[in-house]
Amino acid sequence: MNDNPEMSRIQAVRQKYQRRLMRKKNVVGVGVGLRQKAGKLTEEVVLTVMVREKQPQSMLRPRDQIPSELDGVPVDVQEVGTIKAQ
What we know:
GMP Synthetase, Chain A, domain 3; 4 strands; globular
C-alpha cells in the first residue's frame, strides 16, 4: 500500500498539517484511513482527524474548525473519545 502514489501523497499532506491540526481544540489524533459514512467505512482513503467529540462547524471558533480538504486531499473528522495509553 505504501507503493501507491495516492497514499504517498496523503501521507505527505498528513505530515505537513499534523502539528497545525493537533493544536485545534478537541483534536486527539491525525492519520490516514478510510472515510466513514453513517457509521460504516467506505473505500475512500482520506486524511482522518480524530476528535474527542464531534461538533457542528458553527459551534467552533474559526481557528478550531477543520477544513473538508487540505491540498486537494479529503479530510474526514471522526469522533473517537478520549485516547488513553494502556
